[in-house]
Amino acid sequence: MDLTDLKWTDVDSLSRDTPIVIPVAALEQHGRHMPVFTDSLLLGEVVRRVKEHKAVADRTLFAPLQWLGNSEHHLDFPGTMSASPRLYLDLLRDMAENFLFHGFRRILVLNGHGGNIIPAQQAFFELRQKYRQRGDLCLLTTTYWTLGGQPHKVDPLIKQQQMGHACEWETSMMLRIQPHLVGDLSRTEPVEFGTGFAPAHRAWITKDRTAPGHIGDPRFATAEKGETIFRVFTADVVQLLERMLAWDGTAWDA
């Protein structure tokens, strides 16, 4: 169910155990070969495919995709639009609390941009403290490529083993859905992921890691790989929604 298609009375008639999905992404630079709306286009396609699974989609309420994200680390590249971290965190918290106010108990922020991960987790951490007397809340945040799917194990031609930025994975996905927006890949060069003092976490901005704006090697991207990647990640999201639907309302595990 799409929230945008419903009247308020339709929403009011829903079970308060209906999972709510709030998709969030970004508008930011994606190297010299990809459009700035990449994250939102890719997450939008994942959500579209999830909705094709009617057994889940007909029992889930999908809010419209929020395209403005926390992209401060990309601001050195023109075309990037960003909400500052605290503002963005408050935006996510408020969007979720709108549903809590009307009694909904199962809320998922489905993310499609790395810079949104920590703000989303913090927003829901704060909400859980505010409603700490409640024992019936399931407040989840996830990023679609972190749910366990491994596209490179499904298709061994996929060289990359983790999400980068305007990389083999994202470029393949874009070639699958909007190939006319992808530039000349023969002019791109590999940008290594590096370690960045791992396992410690090093604070960074994008230009610390890459001059052209991408991280990874887009030259290996194909539309066929993109289809595999979409299928893997869509299945992960569907499985998570099935777990939300099956949750008994109190248990820690589901």
Quick gist of this model?
The chain has 254 residues and is α/β, with parallel strands linked by helices. The protein contains 9 helices and 4 strands; from the N terminus they run αβααβαβαβαααα. It has a single domain, classed as Rossmann fold (3-Layer(aba) Sandwich).
Number of domains: 1
Overall shape: globular
Gyration radius (Cα, Å) is 19 Å
Number of helices: 9
- The end-to-end span amounts to 23 Å
Beta-strand percentage? 5-15%
CATH architecture field = 3-Layer(aba) Sandwich
Task: Tell me what the structure shows.
Helix content is 38%, strand content 7%. The protein contains nine helices and four strands, in the order H-E-H-H-E-H-E-H-E-H-H-H-H.
What is this structure's SSE topology?
Elements: H1 8-12, E1 20-24, H2 38-51, H3 54-57, E2 61-62, H4 85-101, E3 106-111, H5 117-130, E4 138-143, H6 151-154, H7 168-177, H8 206-209, H9 223-246
Parallel strand pairs: 1-2, 1-3, 3-4
Helix pairs in contact: 2-7, 2-9, 4-5, 7-9
